[in-house]
Amino acid sequence: MQILGSYSYIPVSNLQEAARWYGKHLGLRVVREDELFLELRSASGVRVLLIGNDDARVTFHMNDSTGTQASYGFVVPDLREAHRQLAESGITVGSVTDYEALSFKFHDPDGNIVELWSDYPDPAAGWTVFEPLNGGQEEDS
Hints:
Pfam families: Glyoxalase
CATH architecture of the largest domain: 2-Layer Sandwich
Radius of gyration: 16 Å
Number of helices: 2
Structural class: alpha+beta
Order of helices and strands: EHEEEEEEHEEE
Oligomer: single chain
Mean pLDDT: 82
Shape: globular
Distance between the termini: 11 Å
Number of strands: 10
CATH class of the largest domain: Alpha Beta
Helix content: 10-25%
Organism: Paenibacillus arenilitoris
Protein name: VOC family protein
Low-confidence stretches: none
């Protein structure tokens, strides 16, 4: 089996306003509208499904020993530039952390925690997140 991509559901109070926000700040564009959701995609094919959450009962995040963690993470090629752009646009961004890669968190208008992440090459592994593992070949199980 080969996995070609993935998608995430993000609960929002207003589909159209959230689509504009994610478009403005993360470059996602609406590719499909349904009465229950909007499908957004990035230029690289990342899929996000915005789902209605009018009563704010649905939240997606994780809690562990280090605090609340994002359930939505997106990989960007230049994390510090993304951090600067979001901060300049008025979004309160967290500090850049360096654990297995560079990352930072921020909230969307509905309070969802979003994380941006940027890999750095791992000479021992011989690859980065921007390259397929094993040259794109499936491993035998």
